Amino acid sequence: MKSNQKQTRIDGIDKKILRYLMEDARTPILEIARNIGISGAAIHQRLRKLEKSGLLSGSKFILNPKVLGYTTTAYIGIFLDKAMSNPYAVQQLKKIPEVLECHYTTGNWSILIKVLCRDNEHLMQLLNKKIQQIEGVSRTETFISLDQSINRQIQI
Amino acid sequence: MKSNQKQTRIDGIDKKILRYLMEDARTPILEIARNIGISGAAIHQRLRKLEKSGLLSGSKFILNPKVLGYTTTAYIGIFLDKAMSNPYAVQQLKKIPEVLECHYTTGNWSILIKVLCRDNEHLMQLLNKKIQQIEGVSRTETFISLDQSINRQIQI
DNA sequence: ACTGAAATTTGGGATGC
DNA sequence: GCATCCCAAATTTCAGT
């Protein structure tokens, strides 16, 4: 899990390989090999190097939550009573499956979380019955995502 | 790209398969087959069904931006002059590679974006030279993520 | 660092229960 | 909906340049 080497250098071939795999993690290595004109073994070597550098941190299947009936994404800014409450609050938030992200942030709030709910009713229940009940949570501000128009990774 | 079937039902075996692939999209299907005790062909059938339902929306390699020297993640709430400016603003934001997400939101702001920068200096330049320059952008509020303690997908 | 080839494993279809 | 069988294709290693 090291990540502070001097800063990995990647060349144009690495970029091409990564672009294929960032698009579809199951693209066959031999298919990439044919497309960019080097051998499968060479790509293999490069991928092992990239993995060792820590740049490749894995691959994931992406699910579309809408198909399971989860249609409401929201960001919630949370004010905590005192800094001391932070680790406890995060620990409690981890137990709530609807919470997908949690950031300590500068600015108004102590933390900013992203949640995924079935609908607005579910979101309201989540706020009242779970988030607001956490000890140390004093106030929240909710921003429902009506539409996500950009969703991508770092561009290489 | 259909996603509004009646609402896909998935059973325990589907969940096991998905959990393996959400963790590592390149897990061999035959390995999953051995672990959960059914044949590779059966998993194949189920994956085709899940893909057809729209629940599986693809797979991605995940890069660790820190290794490339990108260490500052921030959320920026943007106030736009009038609703009319929205599509234009989003179009301009798409052209900025540092912008990874863009949400139309309820609440204070018109839109909320997530950006990835090398450092605070880079973030400041991005705000002053690019975001604030977009026509229609009247004011912004920035929240730097000091630490992301939760990062996951919908739990199945 | 890349190639080419060998050994092994996997993918994905056909067929039958 | 699942298992077995089967072959084409992909993965992965390794000696050679």
UniProtKB/TrEMBL annotation, chains A, B:
Gene3D superfamilies the record matches: 3.30.70.920, Winged helix-like DNA-binding domain superfamily/Winged helix DNA-binding domain (1.10.10.10)
InterPro entries attached to this UniProt entry: ArsR-like_HTH, AsnC-type_HTH_dom, Dimeric_a/b-barrel, Tscrpt_reg_AsnC-like, Tscrpt_reg_AsnC/Lrp_C, Tscrpt_reg_HTH_AsnC-type_CS, WH-like_DNA-bd_sf, WH_DNA-bd_sf
Record key words, sorted: DNA-binding, Transcription, Transcription regulation
Any one Pfam family match given in the protein's UniProt record, by short name: AsnC_trans_reg
Boundaries of every HTH asnC-type domain copy: 10-71
Keyword DNA-binding: yes
Keyword check for Nuclease: no
PANTHER family linked to this entry: LEUCINE-RESPONSIVE REGULATORY PROTEIN, TRANSCRIPTIONAL REGULATOR AZLB
Name this polypeptide is given: Lrp/AsnC ligand binding domain-containing protein
Organism: Robiginitalea aurantiaca
